[in-house]
Amino acid sequence: MEDRIQYLFQKYLDNSCTRKEFEEFLSYISQSGHDEHLRALIRKVYEQSGREAASSDSYVDEAGNLVVPPATAGPAAPGPLRRRNNKSLLAVAVTMAAAVIVVIGGYVWWNNFRWWYSADDSPGKLADNSQQVQHTKKSTQRSENKYLLLPDSTQVWLNVASTLEFPKQFDSNSRVVYLSGEAYFDVKHADKIPFIIHTGKVTTTVLGTAFNIKAYPDRKDVIVSVKRGKVKVNYDNEEVALLTKGQQVKVSNTENKVVEKKPSTNEAAAWHQGYLVYDDETMADILADLQRVYDVNIRVVNASLGAQRVSTSFRRETGVEFVLQVLCQLTDTRFTQVNGQYIIE
User: Domain boundary residue among 235, 263, 291?
Assistant: First the structure.
């Protein structure tokens, strides 16, 4: 693993790693926050990375912020950029925890690197607390997932065919985002600054926790599953559920009604671990999900099939045809493929 970290770190420093390599590098950094051994390993790689010549240009200030020149930070790096040759500052940079240095540098690059600013990610304006606030939109296509790091260091894993809108900077009173689709949130704790997710008429409010929200526009209900902490769920500003670790709720997206509240039988965001898990879901919702996950078209001949409810789970890597075969066995149907479209009858 040490060789792999050193390879990724060197490519990061050279600003030459691919998107996949950058995501892998960030995953090591995320792990290092909870693993003393890995944190020490990253620090060792940093000290052996051969970047001493650049240390006079990059340094850590008294507040612990990494100050870097444009060549290291990438385009439009925030904050003042100054050259310093003071050896005492070099000592500070070397003795500071390398994991902190890398996380800050990665955060700067993450927010400025052009990969994440495609046409569907262009900034927009949404009303937020009666003010016009500049927002950024991040979207995924069918069969695509994305990892996002929000301005407050909240981590978000965006599932297929989903969109998340959030301000470039959160204000001091609340952190408000807008979700269409599905996402797993690991919210950075901040006392007295709630994190609020709007999904149609349903809002979910937390201070610091980890949970999953499934709220695709074509679904009749919103599903909230809590992995850690406490979550409040509202419909039109009226509280309908208060969830704690291991609980799940289904809330109708069209009326003030809790469809179901129960202990979650599966880990929140099982999709993030490569599983497709359906717990008493209608075939209509399951098939719509499969079309998003596998980027395929599925047509049902008998419309009544959509109302049948199924509980099952799969590894995503097994493929759509295996999943359809199992679903057809459960519902006494069969499927064929015609001109690239799957037909169930």
Answer: 263
